[in-house]
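Annotated sample (chain length 185).
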Amino acid sequence: MNARSDIHDRLAASLREARKARGLSLDAVAKLSGVSRSMVSQIERGESSPTVATLWNLTQALQVDFAGLLEGRPSGGIEVIRAGAAPVIAGRCSGVRIRILSPAEAVGEHEVYELIFQPGGALVSDPHSPGCREHLTVIEGALLVQSGEDEQALAVGDTARYAADRAHAIRAEAGARAILIVQDS
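Output written by the structure step:
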């Protein structure tokens, strides 16, 4: 058995075990993840190699650790996710690259993202769950943050904390980079 086949087998087994441990059908996982039932089935049988985005969606739906999926959970030490290996969220905004920095098990509680804005980029969000708050720190450039009717301009080093349980947006006139922490989403 080659290394690639071994990885597919471990991935298939890990996802299948996670689904069964949560008592979910293939249809339920498909609905929760947005991945088709046939693709979930093919991945579980080791017949298809998921993209990083597909794998991320499945791990979120199954509430399993994305980084440790193939290796099991780390037991102490230092866990490192290399820059190129961090999952990226695509298609949810205009002119913004969103890198996921937090572990999969933190989803819904304490999520951390790196936001990289192109000139004119905007991350416009519908209200999150009641009580949700965001903490935005500008690392490079300048940003305009809106929460409901409130609006503030932010420069390098500034941090804004605001309600995210109402419509909110982050915009950049020029390129910018920031760290976003979402609590209780």
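Annotation: The chain has a mean pLDDT of 83.
Annotation: Strands lie at 88-89, 94-100, 110-125, 133-140, 143-147, 150-154, 159-163, 168-171, 176-183.
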